[in-house]
């Protein structure tokens, strides 16, 4: 008769001693691959990606069939992203989006589109939203779409184009960008 217990009857201590070398190997491999870091103070903000706002909006103005505006943003606002999309659905159309990081480190984006208001809001929000208010800024009417736990969306109809603002920035930044786009130069006039 064998004096050792069958493997199924071994205790948790034996399993723990088997897992410790495996866990150490995983940590060592992750460290070698530089896929983890130790940061006792929490995460730190990295550098803001650079983005050529002038070139992007100029390119969009040459290629899109609606007026593209170039807002003059305040000192300290950093353009960090841009994209072009097609808003799907009824009353859809092309859109141009640029994003900014404000001095407190918050994000706000401007989307310009020929799409209808409800299609544009649904596209950006990922689903339908209900209007929750309105703002009058620089002589323009902005419809505010808000709610609990969602980023606000401000939309204004400029005739041939709808402008949409959204992001995690504060209300003051929304007002600043809404004013800037109201006064902005139209690039493809």
UniProtKB/TrEMBL annotation:
InterPro entries reported for this sequence: DUF4245
Listed name of the protein: DUF4245 domain-containing protein
């Amino acid at each position: 008769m064998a004096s050792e217990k069958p493997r199924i009857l071994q205790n948790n201590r034996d399993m723990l001693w088997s897992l410790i070398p495996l866990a150490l190997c995983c940590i060592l491999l992750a460290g070698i691959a530089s896929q983890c870091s130790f940061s006792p103070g929490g995460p730190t903000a990295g550098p803001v990606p650079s983005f050529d706002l002038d070139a992007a909006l100029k390119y969009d103005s040459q290629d899109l069939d609606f007026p593209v505006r170039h807002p003059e943003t305040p000192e300290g606002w950093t353009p960090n992203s841009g994209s072009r999309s097609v808003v799907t659905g009824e009353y859809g159309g092309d859109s141009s989006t640029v994003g900014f990081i404000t001095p407190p480190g918050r994000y706000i984006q401007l989307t310009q589109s020929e799409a209808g208001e409800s299609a544009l809001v649904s596209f950006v929000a990922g689903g339908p939203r209900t209007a929750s208010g309105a703002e009058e800024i620089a002589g323009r009417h902005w419809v505010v779409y808000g709610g609990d736990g969602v980023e606000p969306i401000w939309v204004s109809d400029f005739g041939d184009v709808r402008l949409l603002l959204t992001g995690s920035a504060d209300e003051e930044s929304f007002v600043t960008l809404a004013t800037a786009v109201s006064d902005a130069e139209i690039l493809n006039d």
